[in-house]
Amino acid sequence: MAKCEVCGNDYYLSFEVKAAGASHTFDSFECAIHALAPQCDHCGCRVVGHGVEADGKYFCCAHCAAEAGVTGIADRV
User: What is the C-alpha to C-alpha distance for residues 34 and 38, in angstroms, rounded to an integer?
Assistant: First the structure.
């Protein structure tokens, strides 16, 4: 068993994620998302899907990107 690095739960079904040259141990996808997913630079929510990247910043959607001043991005084409 291994302890989750986010919540500390010692769980027999914990799993390891390797990202950016580092190894991480989690007991759930929720903890993995909390630790690894980028945050939207406008609203702060975790970007779980593809999101939007513009000018070196990450956004959860085109609306947040537009609110931050990014132009030319739309949720629908």
Answer: 9
3-state secondary structure (DSSP) of residue 52 = strand
What global pTM score does this model have? 0.79
Helix ranges (H only) for the chain are: 29-36, 62-67
Each residue's pLDDT, cut to its tens digit, for the chain (77 residues) gives 799 999 999 999 999 999 999 999 999 999 999 999 999 999 999 999 989 999 899 999 999 999 999 999 887 76
Q: Amino acid identity, residue 56?
A: G
Q: Do residues 41 and 57 touch, judged by C-beta distance below 8 A?
A: yes
